[in-house]
Specification:
Length: 328
Amino acid sequence: MKAIVYTHTGAAAEVLKLVDLPTPEPQAGEVRVRLQWSGVNPSDVKSRLGLRSKTLAFPQITPHSDGAGLIDAVGAGVPASRIGERVWTWNGQWQRPFGTAAQCIVLPAAQAVPLPEAVPGEAGACLGIPALTALQAVLVGQGVAGRRVLVAGGAGAVGHYAVQFARRLGAAQVVATVSSEAKAKLALQAGADATVDYKREELPARAAALTGGKGFDRIIEVDAAANIAADLAMLGAGGDLAIYGSGAAEIALPFFPAIVKNATIHCFIVYNLSAADRERALNTLQPMLARGELQHNVAERLPLAECARAHQLVESGKVAGNVVLRID
């Protein structure tokens, strides 16, 4: 089968190679997915760059955890009726050397989730990390029902889904931060009541105006290092932060602003959700998908051979939406 691999960290154009690999066979409890789409996420880019570690966990890695395709083989203990099923994947390359940037992937059967016919295949490659991250950020703790919610980066891969989930799960108010008029339009179309251009507007003052001085009850944050001081200034009494990303490994916590508001901070990584949290997220997501309720913002579709270009687009941070690879 054709696959993308890298054997050392570095620039995308230098380390990502298209090669031939043996087609894997499913073992007991596993399925093989003949992939049609592979999603490229910031975490894939960071791993390939070596931002967390220059030492690879495996001698050779096929990147990407998110994908979509058809089950074409099953291992012992998996019903043969699953063959031919449309599925999307999660944690494809988490703690494993073989991800979805390939024509096939073998996974535990539970990591290949039925993809409703109402959902395009390329959208299925945006669910494992972007959609599930957004759902956990909305569902964690008290959830958002009846609460005022601010989504940082409301036009981004995660933020665009978070706006939709907050709206559908009962938030009283949904506001998104954006950096351009085009991104504001995306967030508003997804269901935001209002947007704040963080490049041109003063965030705490705008938050006070939008919330009648009460502040937000839940802030969903993509970059805690850059925004935690502003987040705590915008947070209402008893509010909480749901943090899924940071531009720096260590950040200073403005402790007095946090304690005086009785703030709660939830930090999580979608790869490592508890079984209960993942089940809750899947049980919430699947009916929405089946009803065709969600907008899927796929910004770029590139062939597998252009994986390096896809990584460069994600790395640039200039793409408003998801980048996926088409696999023939």
